[in-house]
Amino acid sequence: MYALQMLDAGGKPPSGILGGNLVWTGSYSQCVNITRKGFNITFDGKFYMATLVPVVGGGIAGVTKLTIGVCVPSSCNQHDVNQTLDGSIYWRFFVQQGILQVTSAYSQESPPIQNVTIAAICICSVLLLLIAIGTVYDVIIHQPRLMAIKSQKESEAQGSDVTANLPDERTLLVNRLPRKETHATKEGMTGRILLCFSLYTNIGKVLSTKQAPGSIRCLHGIRFISMTWVILGHTYGAAQPHFDNSLQVSEALQTFTIQAISNAFVAVDSFFFLSGLLMSYLLIKQMEKNREKGKSVPYGMVYFHRYWRLTPTYMFAMMLWMWVLPYMFSGPFWPQPPDGLDPNCGDNWWTNLLYVNNFVNIDRMCMSWTWYLANDMQFFVIGVPLVYILYRWQILGIVMQLVLLLASFITTAVLSWQYDMTAPEGDVTKYYEKPYCRIGPYLVGVAVGWLLIKIKPKQTKSMTMSLLMTIGWLVAAAFALAVLYSTYGQYHGTTLQTEAENVLYLTVHRTVWAMALGWVVVACHHGYGGVVDIILSWDAWVPLSRLTYCAYLIHILLLTAVNLTLEVPIHYTTFTMIYFFLGHVTLSYGLAFLLSVAVEVPLMGVETIIFNK
Question: What is the CA angle 305-310-311, rounded to 5?
Fold first, then answer.
């Protein structure tokens, strides 16, 4: 029976091969559950994955590789499995040609836990302990103390009637205390640090819909929608190797309606635009405020705050990715420790810490999706002096922005032409991840942030202004649609057919997208957004917007866990992908909420205590 089960657990040719069904995993669970405890045998079942890579120029269009599951005794190694396949009439030719290779293995035996994983578990345990102590301290000691102080202040402010001021036992007892003690609200250093980890307080901070005066309300909606767009694009990308009808998927990606998904790359440019806008807007307001007080902005603290805002949470997510997640799951596609999910992180994690992972060892990048954070930090480094110049010497600042934008255009055009890149993604390492090709939207954001402060909205709305606003909306919509749907013509011979067209698109389309988005922000902020402003400025977006950074860090961990633990292929349908997408968004934001209240918000509070601001 054990032999029949092992034979049954191996991958076999299914139906739908001509439609691209080349993921023949078999039954992973059935194989690894064949153990010596269940049968009178001296070994366990061990599951191997073999990959057949088509010869260049051969194979089926749209299909990259054939994957086959092999179930063998646990004493077999990779060489034994190759010999087994070599003895098969089906696979002998491919093994001898060297194009069928065993790529991974999994057995029932759990791999030994590394010391770094134990350290990660200890860090998480200490964090949970701080959260527990901080929450208990907040609820039992701090909150009652605040209520008592609030009640005392209300009693003192109740009025000047004589009856209220008549002495009694309680009045005498309170009045005997020094005034500074009756109004003592300050916690000790230990208490203040513990309060930073209180779930009671941190959950309230994250879920609050309050916004500071003068805030740009529509940005919250734009940020959340852009993040869901990123998750949607990654949902399709991560599932791509697991479809059992890959040819149908290739055809679907060429339809008009799906272009907004296959061209989701510009969602990242939305974040570059928002980053430049907020940096410019908030920094100029701070410079104006400090100028009135005769003070200067502490630029060193500006950079430190940015680094502290991003890095500890970033490193915590990396710790989970490197040392914890590999031991949490298993499956036919799940890489085995100690190599883990990302072998590059062991040697290159420091490039992420310094935000240079888009330049240094780019072929061995750790957490490949964090190239965005490197770009964003690099933009911030040069953006602060750029905004300072724009604020102090307006003409010079505008000229510098135009020069940087022109330099980016020229560099992008030259690289696109030299390496014969095609839209919409171009070359990942030479174009997509490089700041000199991606700075356009950030510069547009800087300009829009400056304009929001310079341009004061008029109280009265004239017919001329309404006409101009209508024209502006139409132009912005035309720009956005051209960016999203120009790629549709690639598949039908109408657009992006020549090298010059591809170069032009790759050079300007990201900046054009940011300009369209800039119009949306300006119009909404000055009261000309209509229903768009109502939707984007909805208060419910505010807490979701706060979770965007953590959602960006954590959502790939979720997608990896979902897709690499699959035991059977995914059959692509529109409804299936909607279901996956909604599940990924919900779980990503749920995990982001936990990461935010446990790591991000507490450490921001610690920074406030350290610098007393």
Answer: 100
Provide the whole-model pTM: 0.89
Q: What residues pair up with 51 in beta bridges, in sequence order?
A: 67, 101
Q: Is 592 exposed, middle or buried (0-12, 13-18, 19+ CB in 10 A)?
A: buried
Among left, alpha and beta (phi > 0; psi -120 to 50; other), residue 26 is left
The span from the CA of 349 to the CA of 339, in Å, is: 14
| CB-count burial class (<10 Å; 0-12, 13-18, 19+) for 167 | exposed
Q: Which two tokens stand for residue 284?
A: 């100029």
SS (H, E, C) 390-411: HHHCHHHHHHHHHHHHHHHHHH
Residue 64 has pLDDT above 60, yes or no: no
The DSSP 8-state label assigned to residue 571 in this structure reads: -
Which H or E run contains 73? strand 66-73
564 vs 570: CA distance, rounded Å: 12
3-state secondary structure of 87: coil
How far, CA to CA in Å, does 211 sit from each of 103, 215, 218, 276, 557? 52, 7, 11, 20, 31
CA 221, 222, 228, 232 torsion: positive or negative? positive
**And the tokens for 262?**
């296959």
d(CA 602, CA 208): 16
Q: Please tell me the distance from the alpha carbon of residue 424 to that of residue 260, in angstroms, as a whole number.
A: 11
Higher-confidence residue of 52 and 572: namely 572
Q: Quick one: three-class SS letters along 412-459?
A: HHHHHHHCCCCCCCCCHHHHHCCHHHHHHHHHHHHHHHHHHHHCCCCC
CB distance 218 to 537 below 8 Å: yes
Ramachandran angles phi, psi of 315, nearest 5°: -70, -35
Q: CA-based angle 512:516:520, to the nearest 5?
A: 160
State the pairing for strand pair 66-73/23-24. parallel
- Of 293, 314, 284, 420, residue with least CA distance to 377: 314
The least confident of 165-174, 283-292, 542-551 is 165-174
Structure confidence by residue, pLDDT tens digits, 318-361: 999 999 999 898 888 888 776 678 888 988 999 999 999 999 99
Residue 389 exposed, middle or buried by CB count within 10 Å (0-12, 13-18, 19+): middle
Relative to beta strand 45-52, strand 100-107 is antiparallel
State the number of CA atoms in the 13 A half-sphere of 94 facing the CB: 22
Q: What is the 3-state secondary structure (H, E, C) of 113-182?
A: CCHHHHHHHHHHHHHHHHHHHHHHHHHHHHHHHHHHHHHHHHHHCCCCCCHHHCCCHHHHHHHCCCHHHH
Give per-residue burial for 535-556: e unless 16+ CB within 10 Å, then b: ebbbeebbbbbbbbbbbbbbbb
The residue whose two tokens read 């994955």 is 49
Nearest CA among 494, 483, 553, 532 for reference residue 264: 483
104 beta partners: 49
| Omega of the bond leading into 335 within 30 degrees of 0 (cis) | no
The two tokens of residue 412 are 């992008």
Q: What is the pLDDT of residues 425-458, one digit of tens each?
A: 888 999 999 999 999 999 999 999 999 998 876 6
pLDDT tens profile 202-213: 999 999 998 888
**Strand, coil or helix: 375:** helix
